[in-house]
Design brief:
This protein is of the alpha/beta class and 331 residues long. It is found in: Cytoplasm.
Length: 331
Amino acid sequence: MVIARKFLLAKHFNGPPNVDDFKIIEEDLPDIKDGEFLAEAVYLSVDPYMRAYSHRMTEGSPMVGSQVAKIIESKNEDFPVGKYIAANFDWQTHTISSTDGVGTPYLLPDLEELPLSYGLSVLGMPGNTAYFSFLDICKPKAGETVIISGAAGAVGIIVGQVAKMQSCRVIGITGSDDKGQYIVENFGFDGYVNYKRENLEEQLKQAAPEGIDCYYDNVAGEISTTVIKQMNTFGRICICGSISSYNTDINNPPKVSCVQLHMLRKQLLMQGFQSIPYRNRIFESINQHLEWIREGKLKYIETITEGFENMPKAFIEMLEGKNLGKAVVKV
């Protein structure tokens, strides 16, 4: 008998989440059946979307999430013991699944010398999101200026490097000078602006004197309005996230300045991104990123928290912007 530990949403968040909003329980798992396998979590992900998604959850439900797990028992020849998978298995230590069961699992390719946690970051959802959304929606051209909000986060640092590979000029928006300097020195960004300093509009004018062609938006709010005002004609905007509003009441979102006049005058295109339509193409992204990493063209960083019991702590700190790159929990 295997005992699984899992986190439940004990109560809906009232503003920023705190540790009392979560409850950890233990559950006895049954024996696996033909076609099933048992996986043990190795790394788990915490992501901004979990805060937004929590509005749809009922209290007492398992916290949604994804993980890299090791198959420790199997009655499914496609998922043999000892292999590692990536799957949407929630905040839990052990999961019984199958090829058509919970969590849409898939086998990770051989990562060789790379960390298994990359299956949740640059070779997982953030990497797939960055690759497909930026290239398919922003359609960058050589010589263009790209602005990325949330630039030091899990997706932003990948988008910045992919943009540099397209011969673009790349400016990141961060919440501290330390983060800004880090992405310039380590990931090849051409510059940064700190939205917590005074006069973001003037900072952007100095950083992008010829205007902005592509805006990759992870945060929304007044930051995005300020960026959109300075975009060039026929600019493209990819909406990947809305972090600035995640801790607010979903039925009473924050009010921001109107952007439609700027979009009308400059004939801008704005499109939101969801990863579901790209589910059948994820190995296109994974294999390309593997190639870039091994060629030294793509670098990555993760913020790893030790201990399954610290899932809430890692989640809260990620929402507070304390992470560089992907926030991951090691069981």
